Structures are given as structure tokens and as C-alpha cells.
Amino acid sequence: MQTREKLLxxxxxxxxxxxxxxxxxRQAGRYLPEYRATREQAGSFLDLCYNxxxxxxxxxxxxxxxxxDAAILFADILLIPDGLGQPLDYREGEGPILEPxxxxxxxxxxxxxxxxxxxxxxxxxxxxxxxxxxxxVTLIGFAGAPWTVATYMVEGRGSRDHALxxxxxxxxxxxxxxxxDLLVTATVEYLSKQVExxxxxxxxxxxxxxxxxxxAFQRWCIxxxxxxxxxxxxxxxxxxxxxxxxxxxxxxxxxxxxAGVNGxxxxxxxxxxxxxxxxxxxxxxxxxxxPRLLVIGGAAMEAEICRxxxxxxxxxxxxxxxxxxxxxxxxxxxxRLAEMLRG
Length: 343
Known about the structure:
The protein contains 16 helices and 9 strands. By secondary structure, it is α/β, with parallel strands linked by helices.
């Protein structure tokens, strides 16, 4: 089947479809017993990301169970800094831990030339998935957007206030811009390799976009994403790109207009009527069920699914969550969601 015939690609081209395509962020994850078994087999989280056999397996698991219209590559947004040579570890109960990049000397130690060698297993995983996925399923590649990846690189871990990275970005924009420029280049190369291996669309996750002021959001979120999209389109003019600047409220509108993306993924706080009126005329919208409703299930979940479909289904739309599936989600609730969406 040709790529253009796949529902998700059609939606990203701007079509309004009788049944919107669906997939779920973190659809491969700890809520599935088969994922937990594979994760145990892999050893560490990074070992799982860099094992093409196991990474492909966990990507395929939710497709087998639920028949989503897209599979997203199983990887992590911090593989780029890992590939650039920034030491990275995942500790139980702490999440990612990196050796912080906070000055020109630390920045100079990063090496773009070595990145592809380190992350090469990711490209192999993409190739395997492209060969194994059902014909109707779109393969989505992804990366973290430069601002969000930079927050981890500078803070050294997840942060609630992003004080250190904002101090650098606001206090020394020229120096911080060098890190962002490096990440723009690395992200273009990383996603290009995924596309060459078989990814049919890509998503950029800007999880911490909401940490910035309006002008800083323009400079450190919108402009880098626009550069990435422009450079990808020079190579792959038909490549659909989805952006996810989580939590930016009215900033979604400026992002949709300026970033050059085909689709914008919405967090669960975005009012549906506003999204339909202000965003769908410019881009395909994706979202935005609260993941906690997927945990609760039943009437509350089903009513919100129907409301989202009723309001956003009148234009170009992809059903998804407002962020990733949480580990305590009952698999049968995902099954019910899939049943409702397939009709």
C-alpha cells in the first residue's frame, strides 16, 4: 500500500476523514505486561533503546494488541546527547541523569561526527519496523525538540523550574544559541537517518516549552523547530512533521503558524472549541484525551472520547492523548478506546 493511502498520512495532508486515525503517545510502555517482560530481558533502559530486536518488538506490541493506525519508534529523546558524547544514565526512581553542559568548554567536548555511530542501532530498528509493520500502519520517527533536549543537557536531569537552563538562555543567549544550533543540526541528521531507514512521518517533542516567556518561546522553541522543518523539507519535500509544544496555551496558535509543521499535538488543557476555530484552519490537530481518563475508564473516559471526536473530528484530526500513557493504565481501557475509535 502506498504511503499516501495511509489514514495518518492523509490526515496530516489536511484531509477530514470519516474515521480519524489514532495512536497514543507511550503506547509501547510499562502498562503492558509484554513490555515489562521485554524490558526485563533487555537489562537497562538504554540497552533496550539500543537493541534493534527488542526495540522493534516493544514498538510492535501495542499494534498487535490494539491495531493503532501508527507505530512510533521506541527510543528516547536523550539519545542525541548520548550520541554526542554527553554521559547519560537512567536510574530507577530518578529518571535520566546527565553530566551537565553549562559552559563553552563542556559544549566544545560534544562531537557531532560520532553521533551516528552511537545511535546506529536506532536506524536499524526503524528499518526492521518498516519491513514488519502491517500495510495500513504509518511508522513515526521522532526526536526531542532542541529546547527540551537542552533543558536536560544543562540541568543534568529533569527540573521543575529549569532555573539553570533559563539562566544560560536569558543571560548569555549567544552562548546558549551555540548549543541550540548544534541540536538543530544533530536533530536534522538524526531524523533524516530515520526517514532514510523507513520512517514515514516524524514528531518533535517539546515537553518543556511551557517553561519559557513569550519572546523566549519564539526564539528557543518556534525558531529551532522551524529550522529543522525547513531543512528536512529540503531533503524530503513530502515528509509530514508533527510538533508538540506541550503546555503553551495560546502559544499553540503562533507555533502552528510559524513552525511549518503539518500537525500540532495538543495537551489536555487546550479547549477543544478554540483548537477547532484557531488551529485546524492552519494545521491538522492531534490529541488530546487526558491520560488519567484512560486510567479511570468507563463512562468518564467514553464521554470525553465522544466529545473530542465530535468537536475536532469535523476537520483534519488525529486522535491521541494529551501526553503519554501512564504505567498504571489498565490495558483493557486502551482496548475499549481502540474499539470506540475504530467504530
